[in-house]
Each structure stands twice: as C-alpha cells, then as structure tokens.
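Entry 14. Structure prediction run on the chain below.
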Amino acid sequence: GVSDMIFLLTMSGILEQANKTSLRNDIIIVPTGGLEKVATFISLMRGNQLEIACLLDTFTDPKGKAKFDNLLYQKLIHKNKVRFFDEYLSNYAQADIEDLFDKEDYLKIFNETFSEDSDIKLSDLDNSIQSIILQINKYLNINRYNHYRPANQLSKNGMSINDFKKDTLENFEKLIIDINKLFD
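Output returned:
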C-alpha cells in the first residue's frame, strides 16, 4: 500500500543521509493496494520487460495464501522475487512494515500523528501479541486505524538517523539490501 511505500522511501532516505545502504535509484516502488491487486498489476506490466518483485505483509488468512499460490502457479511472478516483512525480523510468524520499527520508535511516530486522541506507552501494549498494529488496535479497542497517517507523519517530520534505535535502522537496512539484490 501507499503507507508501506512512504515508510520504505523515507527510511531509505534517512539511511542514505547517514551513508548507509539505501534503495537503488533505478528501483521504482509501485503500491498496488494489497495482494488482491498484485495479479492485475503484474499482468498489465508483463509485456514491458520489467523486472518485478513483490514485498508483502505476511498472510493472515487462507484466502491470501491461496491467491499468492495462484500467482506462482500462473507464473506471474517467481517465488524468489517475493519477500515478506517477517523475513527481516527474528521470531516473527507474521509482520507488517510497521514491525520493522522498534516498538518505541513506532509509538513515537504514532503518538505524534494521533496526539489529539492518544498517548500510548510501551507498557500499555499487550506483549503477548507480536504485531505493533494489532497491539495498538487492541489498546484502542478498534479494528483498524489509518496506517497512512503515521507514514505521512514520518515523511514530513524531517527525522534523521539519530531519531531511531539501532534495531529500526538495522531492520530497514537489511530489507533494503535484500531488495537491491533482487535486481542485480
């Protein structure tokens, strides 16, 4: 989605400013809006001789897995060109891009974004749940908050590498190094 693209591009820019690995300039990120739209996008771009890779949230339901398996079966994309966010985190069964942030780092961005509504502390979260998104949803007693708003907040904050913990920076750099390698 768009929020994933903003997080990725913003963190890439922050890493680049610190002379760390950033996204290659020849890689264009296109948010498709989720797995449901990936097949359509790939079908439209197929004739253009483009190299395509997918970066996806971990599947949380069997329907998503079935759709993904169908993409592979139809040979719309090769399995070695697909990555999931949980691959860049230790001991995560499923993950979203927000989970690449150290929880304190993400809460700082979240609280700045929704300052009129909440001031969530790390101690407020349910540690039996891995995903920061699910932890926040549970704390707020809602199904889903607007993920775009924290991404937008990050992009306009003018933050630097000094504003993030080592884990956040390492997680994003590991992801970006791997994305770059997909196009070697």
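The first helix runs from residue 2 to 17.
Filed with the rest of this week's runs.
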